[in-house]
Protein 1
Amino acid sequence: MNATIQTKIAQFQIVKQKILAALRKGENYELKTELNSEYKERRKEAVRRVIANMTVGKDVSGLFTDVLKNMHTDDLEIKKLIYLYLINYAKTQPDLVILAVNTFVKDAEDTNPLIRALAIRTMGCLHVQEVLDHLSDPLRKCLKDPSPYVRKTAVMCVAKVYDLSPAIAEENGFVEDVRRALSDSNPMVISNAVTVLTEINEMAPGQNIWRLDSKTVPTLLAAINECVEWGQIAILEALADYTPKTEKEAESICERLLPRLQHANGSVVLTTVRLLLKYEKYVHRADLLSQFSKKMVPPLITLLSSEPEIQYVALRNINIILQRHPKMLSKEIRVFFCKYNDPIYVKYEKLD
């Protein structure tokens, strides 16, 4: 009896799969027809439906060539969706991706900087060796583009090229172009250049592709005031690996970092605290050291009134700070009192 039931269940599952496959095939056929429609709005809606299906995990790779036909459009929204589709299926359809190369190259020279940046970003994200040969010339032009938005996007693309082929990145001088971007007039380009050079160093351990020097530090410190929070963190992380040459240089860097303690982003604050703790080893003036300690206290206290997750991270960092400066928070002992609604992991850290 049980065997009969199991057999019927198995048969039901097979029929169910066939029905679902037929429905998918029918839907894909309908989308294929819409993608080749003579009406622009119908093609636009079809592209949206393809991306919606792809997002929920449905296989729409069979529509690759039909989607590609819609790349030649001035509609930025549709172009973004098609590029997203290409990134998703590039590795499974590398031969067909080559068909889109001419459109990428053309878009990289478009009058609209948003389209130029989108084209160069997508070519880098495809991560297909065959596309790499066609990427070099557009990338070289975009690294020197008059628009800072395009330049900062092109700089990030260099990291993707280096990851795929370090030899091509070096031969075409892309790494050197990123080094030159450290003196760019736009702070976002500078912060992206720092991020890329740091990533390249991690990809090539022991080669010292880039090392921060005393000539570059003032440029980074000037740019940090105008960067978004993640750009600031990238620059601060890079400065953590720099050793000041003189006590005066260490003092100057610390004084220029102090305003970052007032930032709303907890990561910026904690990274700044970490830097101040590192650089204070090179400062011998007692009045300055006392000033640094006093400046660090309020932002740390502020972090302890944030969400539990941020509190936990702040407490872990405070634990390390107090090992070096045991009396720094001696007047703020109340912030370590356990509250009834504190999560257990926060209570343990407070007690510790």
Protein 2
Amino acid sequence: GLSQYSSDPRTEWDLSAYSTRDQVLEAVRNLRYKGGNTFTGLALTHVLEQNLKPDAGARLEAEKLVILLTDGKSQDDANLAAQTLKNLGIEIFAIGVKNADEAELKQVASEPLELTVYNVLDFPLLSSLVGRLTRVLCTRIKEKSNKENADIPVNTGPQLSPTDLKISAVTSKSMHLTWSPPLRPPKKYRIVYYPSKGGIPKEVVLDGAVSSLQLSNLTSHTEYLVSVFPIYDTVVGDGLRGVTSTLPLSSPRSLRVSELSHNSMRLSWKAAQGATQYLVLCSAAPNGAED
């Protein structure tokens, strides 16, 4: 599978799209380069939420590897997103070209770094990595596969996936999530949420026995994307997704001016629900005195 990214990640093809080496190579030859920004954290989140799902071709019993290829320093928090993947048992290899930040590559990549971090001065030099990287990848897959439990079911369905995500009690800064657990209780849940128009993803990890969460400290009047992922010992089940907007902040109403004098006035208004302080700004009208 392959995704390109700038400020908006784009899936070029899923893991299930091609079944032969020649088909994959032909797809690579036809790939159009996507220029733009370098939001690596958003891209890694996209890979987890879109490309590593069973309906995108990710087999539950197979090892999960992500190879990141970048030529610049990330403009968002790549380390947080990478840590989420690594916590789920997904191995990350980081390859930098030209202006890539080597310190960031080492933060993002899995251990041991001598096998998972590569840096070259220009794109043509990537060809020199192919042989070694191929051997390392195949060896890592074999090593991990030998340790895996062979009893993992191949099909998720209701067995491993929660259902019926409900978002309620929405205010200007909070919302409440509930969902129905899968038939096989997960070890933990991972909840990811972020503004749909861009923002650093935040996450909460819950015990698998819990099936509700209160999200707080949200931004008012903002649309949020919410995802709930069940986490098992060796696999991540298919996630639930929802979209909800927080309410706008309430405003003060009925502003009145009274008790006018040559250098003072009294202001009064109806309170805004939930306000803890007010900021009052005063300036002279055009052609008036100084502020």
Protein 3
Amino acid sequence: SMDSTLPYIHNDSDLSTNSSFSPEEERKSKVQDVVPQALLDQYLSMTDPSRAQTVDTEIAKHCAYSLPGVALTLGRQNWHCLKDTYETLASDMQWKVRRTLAFSIHELAVILGDQLTAGDLVPVFNGFLKDLDEVRIGVLKHLHDFLKLLHVDKRREYLYQLQEFLVTDNSRNWRFRAELAEQLILLLELYSARDIYDYLRPIAFSLCADKVSSVRWISYKLVSEMVKKLYLASTSTFVVDLMNELVEKFCRCHKWSGRQTFVFICQVKCHFVNYFF
């Protein structure tokens, strides 16, 4: 008979006790009453690395693609049935499997809620941040969607890592930097004026000087939105300092491209021009 009252695991202490489970206890930990148990067992068995090597090399990728749907069907109360499988897929040798999970980790976070996300998904998310660019782009494209689900203190920890997105395996991968600029525009709503000035401003200025025009154009919008955010904040000193820096760095630049950058930034939000002069 199925036992639907088993607690789900979501912290380190539970993980340590789970490692000492007997095979029978391990089987019971994956019991649920939402779908036929045989169907779930078949899905879980397909993530076995040995099967991927002998049956189908793409099977793990398909399982990773389907995992958010399976998690939604089972519900967060049955996350204990999928947790080990998710961690197995997240450490798969094939980068395509990890990439698939990276693109959907924000959706899984919505399904699981803040507590399970903080305990089980954040470590996986941190691992993806240090992965190949093909995997990192997955978390970057939905960076705002994931970070907004975290507690404020936990969210601020990632301010120190945002600059790492400027470094890629291939410097010609300009779309990576363009996506970073797009995400930073969205992230402005999640952070305080001081955090924006201290951490996001240097990244924005770096993107404004990018060699690729498409990246620069998005960055102009980023800087303009940053000015707006700081202008509307209660602390006005940040916006004054930012505008002074824009004037010194671009408006009075000895290169015509720098002065052109200043004009483009003003063009994006022309109603701020009067504030400069």
Protein 4
Amino acid sequence: VNQNKLDLFCKLGYSKPDICKVLENLGPEALEDDVLKELIWIGSKPQALENQAQPSPLKLVARGSCSTTPGLKGLGEEESDSSDSLRPIVIDGSNVAMSHGNKLVFSCWGIQLAVDWFRQRGHTYIKVFVPLWRKEPPRPDSPIADQHILEELEKQSILVYTPSRKVKGKRVVCYDDRYIVKVAYEKDGVIVSNDHYRDLQNENPEWKWFIEQRLLMYSFVSNRFMPPDDPLGRHGPTLDNFLSKKPVLPEKKLQPCPYGKKCTYGNKCKFYHPERLRQAQLSVADELRAKTKVLLTLGKEEDRWNCSL
């Protein structure tokens, strides 16, 4: 075996038995490139690389480690798991755009802000519905701002135009609200809009329940898209649970008793008493009765013991 080649590949981190095996097969005159290819082919891994645990996107994600580069998560299991646990998002594009434009301008930037907010949360299914006539050049009675955003979102397969056409100079527009509710209902997702869709609620009882339970309202605060933390009211689910297919039930946190060990309510006290975990929570009267019973029992046993003597 060529000692120089053996030393070279040992320095590269390959195991000595594998190197000897390859050199015996290829002969002493084998080129270094051929030896290296053979080592790679038989699956010998440099020990140095194994010991250093070189970071690779697949390894990091598979082990659940954090990555400083968000783009590397794309091929991992964790992102697919998290996206599978999040509900699909269907955005009422006209409602969001007009809301961001203070009901005066169709602001496409408002749609982009909403899409970015859900993207950052990890939602992979996001659809925005906008009437087709919004592709036309803006008119004085219907101004549009940042119209190029619609084209960019369409290229990303996020924006969907609902049909419209002109008949004898008059525009015939399909009802985009019906598309929004229907797709969200079929996908078991969430509708993002400040519209209540009352006509569609009256039209279909199943849609009525769905709109009541899955409508996510929002506000724009200084170009910031802000849904409420409690979409269904103070006693409803949190925003995280609302947007999740598998909501996490909150842990019940009992408030500690302000009186502590001085509390005289016994088992009637509604607050948390850590010192009473291992003992029955009796009222003060019940505790006295229990102690009296014990004393009486001990007294009787003592009397019997004295009599026997």
